[in-house]
Amino acid sequence: MDYFDYRENELWAEEIRVSDLARQFGTPLYVYSARTLRRHVNVFDEALAGLDHLTCFSVKANGNIHILRLLGSMGSGVDIVSGGELFRAIMAGIPPAKIVYSGVGKQDHEIREALAANILMFNVESVAELERISQIATEMGAVARISLRINPDVDPKTHPYISTGLKKNKFGLDMLEATGAYLMAKKLPAVSPIGMDCHIGSQLTQIDPFVETLEKLLAFIDRLKTSGIDIRYLDLGGGLGITYDEETPPQPADLGRVVAEAVRERGLTVILEPGRAIAGNAGILVTKVLYTKKTRAKNFIIVDAAMNDLVRPSLYGAYHHIGEVAPKKRKKLKVDVVGPICESSDFLAQDRLLPEVASGELLAIFSAGAYGFAMSSQYNARPRAAEVIVDAEQITLARRRETYGDLVALEG
Ligand SMILES: Cc1ncc(COP(=O)(O)O)c(C=O)c1O
Ligand SMILES: N[C@@H](CCCC[NH3+])C(=O)O
């Protein structure tokens, strides 16, 4: 559910015409809907109502500080994976007591920064990392609250590049290793093992992998209790999918129902780390048609957005719905929508049935609010797009368009 819709034969972002935004800010342009973001946060809160819970938005999905501020103002915490994301979160006013820190390669300075900020906890991904955190916390006279990230070896049934909970993946510890690590952590004076964490993958469209994971984790929590380890936080990570095309992913409420009883019985606080489910359908990428081109083999629509702006189609073969900003009745053609970058993988859609658009027209690429701008680059010396947030009739320029000067600013 989002607040981009067609009225008066035009695409609107809440109360603003998308064509007006393109005129004012140029293209390519990321447009986010504040009302959609708020709605998604509320859906998670409602799904976990009655349970002790914390929603920690995954900053990697969309780290714009205006967006983090909006989510923070609703009580959300964040899941971070780097010192840079910690910096963004703190800048956006997220309370450190609502920050959890995941990732397999935390560096010493990042661990120090997180301890100095006194974040809620580290999601520890290896024994070596546990030892490092313990050592740094000892040096700093601090106590690090930790969860161990469990790799439950569950197939999330998603794209292989974004599955994280299989034993061949680099993430987390298996339960045997984790048992030893919990016992070790219990003895370390500068470490307090209070949680269990997992994140099995992204864009999950079925509930079963969550259920299977939850069952494994709960049984593990119960076993640890007999060894004197009292787990108080259960972090189930992110991963709920969204509808890009025709997927019907489980809703936060489905997840809520699955966890409620077990969590209440054990007095656990549930943490979720959604990224895509909050931001994905809250953003579109607006692009202008530069040229149309017919070859003997294919029809191309060449637009001013490219794989440097939205890499998901090139990287994962991901589907993003594309629609006209001002639809007109006309013949449809099977086309590839491509950008100006000199790579054949620079496409936003392939073999897509779209109206025969003309140069100068605007297209909207939907479901681009998560892993869109966040994964953008300056490849081919293309300044990054601007980002705007629409909140009813109000427009905020959340990031100005980069300039040619920005391209070389760090090169002395
Ligand atoms: C540790 C962790 N938490 C949360 C997320 C957010 O995932 P999603 O955007 O699928 O909800 C990710 C990314 O997949 C992740 O790696
Ligand atoms: N970047 C991925 C999701 C990976 C999530 C990170 N663990 C995507 O666009 O779908």
From TrEMBL:
<keyword id="KW-0456">Lyase</keyword>
<comment type="pathway">
    <text>Amino-acid biosynthesis; L-lysine biosynthesis via DAP pathway; L-lysine from DL-2,6-diaminopimelate: step 1/1.</text>
</comment>
<feature type="binding site">
    <location>
        <position position="371"/>
    </location>
    <ligand>
        <name>substrate</name>
    </ligand>
</feature>
<feature type="binding site">
    <location>
        <position position="371"/>
    </location>
    <ligand>
        <name>pyridoxal 5'-phosphate</name>
    </ligand>
</feature>
<dbReference type="Pfam" id="PF00278">
    <property type="entry name" value="Orn_DAP_Arg_deC"/>
</dbReference>
<feature type="binding site">
    <location>
        <position position="239"/>
    </location>
    <ligand>
        <name>pyridoxal 5'-phosphate</name>
    </ligand>
</feature>
<comment type="subunit">
    <text>Homodimer.</text>
</comment>
<comment type="function">
    <text>Specifically catalyzes the decarboxylation of meso-diaminopimelate (meso-DAP) to L-lysine.</text>
</comment>
<feature type="binding site">
    <location>
        <position position="316"/>
    </location>
    <ligand>
        <name>substrate</name>
    </ligand>
</feature>
<keyword id="KW-0457">Lysine biosynthesis</keyword>
<dbReference type="InterPro" id="IPR022643">
    <property type="entry name" value="De-COase2_C"/>
</dbReference>
<dbReference type="InterPro" id="IPR022657">
    <property type="entry name" value="De-COase2_CS"/>
</dbReference>
<feature type="binding site">
    <location>
        <position position="276"/>
    </location>
    <ligand>
        <name>substrate</name>
    </ligand>
</feature>
<dbReference type="InterPro" id="IPR009006">
    <property type="entry name" value="Ala_racemase/Decarboxylase_C"/>
</dbReference>
<keyword id="KW-0210">Decarboxylase</keyword>
<feature type="binding site">
    <location>
        <begin position="273"/>
        <end position="276"/>
    </location>
    <ligand>
        <name>pyridoxal 5'-phosphate</name>
    </ligand>
</feature>
<dbReference type="InterPro" id="IPR022644">
    <property type="entry name" value="De-COase2_N"/>
</dbReference>
<dbReference type="GO" id="GO:0008836">
    <property type="term" value="F:diaminopimelate decarboxylase activity"/>
</dbReference>
<feature type="domain" description="Orn/DAP/Arg decarboxylase 2 N-terminal">
    <location>
        <begin position="36"/>
        <end position="279"/>
    </location>
</feature>
<dbReference type="GO" id="GO:0009089">
    <property type="term" value="P:lysine biosynthetic process via diaminopimelate"/>
</dbReference>
<keyword id="KW-0663">Pyridoxal phosphate</keyword>
<feature type="active site" description="Proton donor">
    <location>
        <position position="342"/>
    </location>
</feature>
<protein>
    <recommendedName>
        <fullName>Diaminopimelate decarboxylase</fullName>
        <ecNumber>4.1.1.20</ecNumber>
    </recommendedName>
</protein>
<comment type="similarity">
    <text>Belongs to the Orn/Lys/Arg decarboxylase class-II family. LysA subfamily.</text>
</comment>
<feature type="binding site">
    <location>
        <position position="312"/>
    </location>
    <ligand>
        <name>substrate</name>
    </ligand>
</feature>
<dbReference type="Pfam" id="PF02784">
    <property type="entry name" value="Orn_Arg_deC_N"/>
</dbReference>
<feature type="domain" description="Orn/DAP/Arg decarboxylase 2 C-terminal">
    <location>
        <begin position="30"/>
        <end position="369"/>
    </location>
</feature>
<dbReference type="InterPro" id="IPR002986">
    <property type="entry name" value="DAP_deCOOHase_LysA"/>
</dbReference>
<feature type="binding site">
    <location>
        <position position="343"/>
    </location>
    <ligand>
        <name>substrate</name>
    </ligand>
</feature>
<dbReference type="InterPro" id="IPR029066">
    <property type="entry name" value="PLP-binding_barrel"/>
</dbReference>
<keyword id="KW-0028">Amino-acid biosynthesis</keyword>
<dbReference type="GO" id="GO:0030170">
    <property type="term" value="F:pyridoxal phosphate binding"/>
</dbReference>
<dbReference type="InterPro" id="IPR000183">
    <property type="entry name" value="Orn/DAP/Arg_de-COase"/>
</dbReference>
<feature type="modified residue" description="N6-(pyridoxal phosphate)lysine">
    <location>
        <position position="60"/>
    </location>
</feature>
